[in-house]
Amino acid sequence: MREQRSDIHRDILGVRVAALGWRDALRKIEQAVTGDGPQRVFNFLNAHNANLAMTNTTYRNGLARCEVLPDGVGVDLASRTLHGTAFPANLNGTDLLPAVLVHIEKPLTVALIGARPEVLERAVENFRAATPWHSFHAVSDGYFERADSAKVTARLEALDPDITLVALGSPAQELWIDAHIRPGHGKVVFGVGALFDFVSGSVARAPEMMRNLRLEWLWRLILEPSRLWRRYILGNPVFLLNLLKYKVGGARRNDRVMA
User: Fold this and answer.
1) Is residue 82 part of a domain?
2) What is the pTM of this model?
3) Cα 151 to the chain's mean position, in Å?
4) Which of 40, 95, 124, 210 is 20 to 30 Å apart from 203, CA to CA?
5) Exposed, middle or buried: residue 119 (CB in 10 Å: 0-12, 13-18, 19+)?
6) Distance between CA atoms of residues 162 and 104, nearest Å
7) Beta-strand pair 188-191/163-167
């Protein structure tokens, strides 16, 4: 039986990942957005990100300071291998963020950072069309000079958004969020990867059959082979090797399920 407790996290190659079902995830995010608690940052772990976390200490430490959600078949495989059960849900940002915006009925201010200017503009338009009770604002495309990050965060502070979506790719977005995002820059902040590409229509989602078979990664590889071949053709075997080493290597073997 899949884990249903909302307060359990699992150790996936040294990263603490929340084991939430869809209902618990939506409720948790809604409470973070509409409640009086501190700022919350959410990022996602897939096989590619797990590989990055194995070699990039700064990136791994940044993930340790936020809530990490499971994304994709790779981390499900890791959960089965290390914990005997898959995650309760595949909480990838491409599906989760639109669901969050539909789920929360209270009008929100949503800031967007990232992608090419034309992609960002279309993403804002399509977000507005899908959930018109929220207010969407393009704060910056993803091509700003990182030395000008203070100008971007100043715009966020002036906007005071409920939700901030940062789409700079991994590990850049997680590192940027960890280094620059502070209270006042968004009640809840997400690193969302390619979300704006999908929402804008610039990149097509995999057919539903491929998504159901957990093969969306293959669809993305077919669409963008020159950009993604290293991530999947080389990265997937590396991930499996890392998983095998982690399972037999004894690292924190006594506490892989985390409260």
Assistant:
1) yes
2) 0.91
3) 24
4) 40
5) buried
6) 11
7) parallel
Residues 181, 19: Cα–Cα separation, whole Å: 25
Helix (H, G, I), strand (E, B) or coil at 201: coil
Least confident interval from 110-114, 189-193, 208-212, 236-240: 208-212
Total domain count for the chain?
Answer: 1
Q: Is the pLDDT of residue 255 over 60?
A: no
Q: Which of the two residues, 1 and 207, has the higher pLDDT score?
A: 207
Residue 178 lies in a domain: yes
Is the Cβ–Cβ distance between 49 and 171 less than 8 Å? yes
Enumerate the β-bridge partners of residue 111: 137, 164
Q: What is the DSSP letter of 148?
A: G
Residue 176 sits in which domain range? 9-210
Q: How many other CB atoms sit within 10 Å of the CB of residue 176?
A: 21
Question: How confident is the model at residue 258, as a pLDDT?
Answer: 58
Place of tokens 């966020």: 156
Interior angle at CA 102, CA 98 and CA 104, nearest 5:
115
Beta-sheet pairing, 15-18 with 9-12:
antiparallel
Burial degree of 36 (CB within 10 A; 0-12, 13-18, 19+): exposed
Q: Please check the confidence at residue 259 and state whether its pLDDT lies above 80.
A: no
**Is residue 165 helix, strand or coil?**
strand
**First vs last Cα of the chain: how many Å apart?**
19
In a domain, 242, yes or no: no
The predicted structure's pLDDT at residue 207: 86
pLDDT tens for 131-160 read 999 999 999 999 999 999 999 999 999 999
| Backbone torsions φ then ψ of 154, nearest 5 degrees | -65, -40
Confirm whether 127 is domain-assigned.
yes
